[in-house]
Structures are given as C-alpha cells and as structure tokens.
Amino acid sequence: MQLQSFGAALTVTGSMHLLTSGGRQVLIDCGLFQGNDDLEARNREPLPFDAAGLDGVILTHAHLDHVGRLPLLVKLGYRGPVHCTEPTAALAETVLLDSARLQVDGYRHDLRRARRQGIPDEQVPPPLYDEEDVHRTLALLRPALRFGETTRVAGLRVTPHRAGHILGSAYLLIESGDARVIMSGDLGNRESGLQLDFTPPPPADAVVLESTYANRTHRPWAATLAEFRDALRGAVRQGGKILIPSFAIERTQTILHTIKNLMDAGEVPRIPVFLDSPMAARATHEYFEYGDELIPAVRDTLQAGEDPFRPGTLHVVPTSAESQRINRYDGPAIILAGNGMMTGGRIQHHLKHHLWKPSTSLISVSYQSPSSLGGRIVTGADHVRVMGEEIAVRAHVYTIGGFSAHADQDDLLAFLATAGTPHVWLVHGEPDVMESFLPVLAERGLKGDLVPDRQPVDLTGPGYPDGRPAGFTAPPPRSGSHGGE
Ligand SMILES: [Zn+2]
C-alpha cells in the first residue's frame, strides 16, 4: 500500500492522504490548510492528482482541516462517494457551509478594499468555493460507516473504530490482501471531558499516526478543571470581559459543560455567558443526537432530558449586530467565540475592543499554531494586528492546555501498544515535535518515520527485519480513565 500526503505532512493542517493499492486510489480526508497566509496559500495550489479519477474518499472526522478542501475536489470533477460516519456527515454540513460563507465574505471584503485602492477586480483571488459547491459536495456524502463494521471501498476493506476526538471521529483499519494499515485521523485525549476514549486498535503492519502533541503530556483532568476555575475567578476579579476563543465543535461544548458544572457547584459566580458562534450553537444540537459517544456524566444528563451545555446564564448570540452589542454590555461576562486560533470569526472584533484593556482576560483553551494570531498573543506579543489595526496586548492571558481534544504522548503510546505495529509513519505534527518522538518510539522497539510532503512512501514495505516488536505496556491515563465504556 502506497501513501502520498498532500497535507498534514510535516505540518498540522490540511490533512489529505492518497492511498494507492492494486491500481486503485482512495483519498483519506480532504482538509483545508489553516493558520497563516503561507499555509493558506497552499489551498490554491492545483491538486497533483486526477480528482475525477479517484476511486473513493473517506473522511475520518468533520474538522475543517480534514474536510475543508472537499468542495474543491468536487469542483475539479470528483463525483464518487464520500464515506463517513453519520455524525461526521451532519457536522461536515455545518462546517463546510460556514467555510463557504467565510470564503465569500472574505472575497467581498477584499474586493471592496481593492476597488478603493484602484486595483482591478480580476486581481482579487475569487473564493475557493461557495454555498452551491458545498451543496454539490454534501450530495456525495455516504454516512454509512459504523464503528467496528467492515465496508468495501474501491476493493479495500475499511473498518472504522471510535477515535474519541470529536463526535463521529474514526480511525480506519484498511486492509488490502494481507496488508493491514491504520490511518489514525485525529485521536482523542483519554481525559476528554466529553468524548469516550478511543477503542484499542487491532494489530496492523503500519500506523499512519497523528502527532500533534507527541512531545508533551497534558495535565490531568482534575488539575485542568482547577486551573480553569482559578482563571475564571481571577478574571471575574479583574472586572472586565473574559474572552474564550474556542473552536465550534467539541471545545465549545466541553467549555460550556465545564462552566455549567462550576456555576452549579457555586465555584464561580453566575455571570452572563455569551455563546457568540451560530456554528457552535448548531453543532451543539448534534450532541443531543449522538449521546452514545459521550462520557457517562454527559450522556446521563442528556438522557434525563437536561441540557448539559447550557449554564443558567447562557445567551446565544444569533446575529453579528447582536455580537457588536455585547461590547456595550457593562461588567464581567464570558464571551465564547470562534475561531480558536483567533485567525477569523467573531472573536476578532472582541479582541479589537478588549485586548488593550488591563481589565480584560483572555483564556486560551485551544491549540495555538505558533504563527497564528492566537499563537503570537499567548507567547507574549506586546502588539498584534487585528482586523487591520495595531492593538496593544494588555489583557491578562491564561493558557490552559488540558482541554485538548488531541492525544498526548502517553495516549499515542497507549494506542500503539495494542496495535503491535512494526512501523509508525508520523503525520499531522510540527517537524521538531515528530523528530523528538522518534527516540521515544525506538525505546519501545518501534520504527518511526516522518511522512514526507507529497513524496510517495511504501507503507507496507520492509519495516523491521526481525518482524513484529516485542510489545510494551500502555501508559495508563493520567488520573484514571473516566472515558471508558
Ligand atoms: Zn480534528
């Protein structure tokens, strides 16, 4: 089985992996590059394969960096099936429609600015795709993948298993003849406050493994909760707005559930909570449909007919006009808005209005790519550019890493421990993080390699001359799993 990666190779974004086996070609994920201008420019590069000639597409989950270039594939002539789980299809609709809207809004904005500068319209890059392209794409979704059930896709046997990352997320066991390969997609944090753990993987010859946090260990869940509670209490004392930039799927629901628990337990004051993200509000509805993927505490609340994601003081902000009005609200209030890396979305105007005030608190609960706006703020920039304006960073900035939806080093090793895999191919990580993981793999008798950008590799070629590694013990979850079944 051959792999060629056109995204998430030597970087954490733009996942797109082409598997070739027996002359058939299947694409695993088709994600958008996000984070900074250089990365985003890659979305405009021509795809280096014949989109119309693909034999199938499989999605691991609905995050934009895994599905966001699908409409481009369809624009280039792909008309075949896009296989995924049911929740992934539901969330992909929300995610792709939002992405199209952002593309078109961005284009209109650029066009107005270009005209004021006397630049001809045709020099403004058009949107990558629009709502119509998304509807054509959604018509190709085949949401029939079920955890633990094998499906045939273009001659390959494909078995999705629960990845525990976001609702519907799957890792894939792909079999062709005798070869067995696992494509990890994104794997969950075994201490998620929302999702059940990933199911232990079956044995495989090779694992293509995400490595976002392969160099670190997240804080235990209890410590993360205490850290978040203390940040909120400190922020309330500052008296200003409390900005929580958050991704719409998984992180927002985790944070809402945590705030609700803290307020119900009397651990933080009942100040107003504004959910300023229509996309997050829509995504939250899907959690009511697929409660069986959630940890018992959340599932039980849902089954009792209660809303686990609604603190008593929650206001959902539907329109951007109402979003602007929050800025005139006096007194402390929590504002949850997208996106998590602060590179776009409604969080930007809140940053512009509040980042320069010492009374403001910014609580980062998301992964921050070093080159993104969020990355610059959390690493201590004095001034940043927000919506075309220089803004001083005077807000109190808290960074809380333990809410991560991604596996940390222990989680990745626990995953590999049961796969009994001779060869681990690393994707979806920063190169220095992946390099530092190689000796950790070697200590456990595993051969690791970084998947090169765009260059084909033979996944099931010779791994270890001595056959399978002896195996090793999985590191236990940090504070005892609360996510098992
Ligand atoms: Zn993801």
TrEMBL record:
Pfam families: Beta-Casp, Lactamase_B, RMMBL. This is Ribonuclease TTHA0252. PANTHER family: CLEAVAGE AND POLYADENYLATION SPECIFICITY FACTOR FAMILY MEMBER, INTEGRATOR COMPLEX SUBUNIT 11. The keyword Hydrolase applies. SMART domains: Beta-Casp, Lactamase_B. Residues 252-377 form the Beta-Casp domain. Residues 449-485 are annotated as: Disordered. It comes from Deinococcus caeni. Keywords: Hydrolase. It comes from the Bacteria. Residues 13-218 form the Metallo-beta-lactamase domain.
